[in-house]
Amino acid sequence: MYQLINNIKQFAYLSKESLDLVIPLFSKMEYRKGDEFIRFGKPCQSLFLIERGYCRAYNIQDGEEVNLEFFFEFETVTNKNSYLFNKPADFSVVACEPMIVHKVDKKDLVPLLLQHPELEIAGKKNLELIAAKQEKQLQLFRILTAKERYSFLEKNYPELVQRVSISQLASYLGVKRETLSRIRNKRMRPVIL
């Protein structure tokens, strides 16, 4: 419960009263590696706050999985368009290792947000963080080469480079596995003077 409270408090100050109202809305969920908890084509009307583990969002393109995003501890996972606009999810999310998440359903959360402005502020900040992360990723792919994208991840998101398999990371970076292996090998070679 402590992790959940800290996760919620990162978005905005919340009084004890607000926490006492919102905490009971969350359900602790455990997923095994490979469990899919957001499904393409199905509505996603929940937020998942990650306590332990990580997951990936992916689509199928030309018969192959394409990784769109990875989510780690203390991040919130949802399909934003589905959640906000009641549309079918346009990607799936699957656990990449055993996970503990805290799930809250929109139908339970929204009435509380409308009655308590500080909870509404925290909710908006959370969705803003999700949108900012997606925007940063979009810029990453439009501006940088594959080598530069990998360097950016090493510097800014080391958990991606350390925890995600090379095949999944290559898919995320939009390159073949062999290309990513070459990029990594060149970066690891010592410079001989």
Outline the structure in words:
This is Cyclic nucleotide-binding domain-containing protein. Residues 10-113 form the Cyclic nucleotide-binding domain. The protein is α+β, with helices and mostly antiparallel strands and 193 residues long. It has helices spanning 2-9, 16-22, 80-85, 106-115, 117-143, 146-156, 158-163, 166-173, 177-188, and strands at residues 27-31, 36-38, 46-52, 55-61, 64-71, 76-77, 92-95, 99-105. It folds into 2 domains: 2-143, Sandwich (Jelly Rolls), CATH 2.60.120.10; 144-193. Helix 4 (106-115) crosses helix 5. It is elongated and about 55 Å long.
Structure at a glance:
The protein is built from 9 helices and 8 strands.
CATH topology of the largest domain: Jelly Rolls
Count of discrete domains: 2
Overall SS class: alpha+beta
- What is the beta-strand fraction? 15-25%
Low-confidence stretches: none
Average pLDDT metric? 88
Pfam families: cNMP_binding
Protein name: Cyclic nucleotide-binding domain-containing protein
Domain Cyclic nucleotide-binding: 10-113
Organism: Niastella vici
What's the arrangement of secondary structure elements?
Elements: H1 2-9, H2 16-22, E1 27-31, E2 36-38, E3 46-52, E4 55-61, E5 64-71, E6 76-77, H3 80-85, E7 92-95, E8 99-105, H4 106-115, H5 117-143, H6 146-156, H7 158-163, H8 166-173, H9 177-188
Antiparallel strand pairs: 1-8, 2-7, 3-6, 3-8, 4-5, 4-7
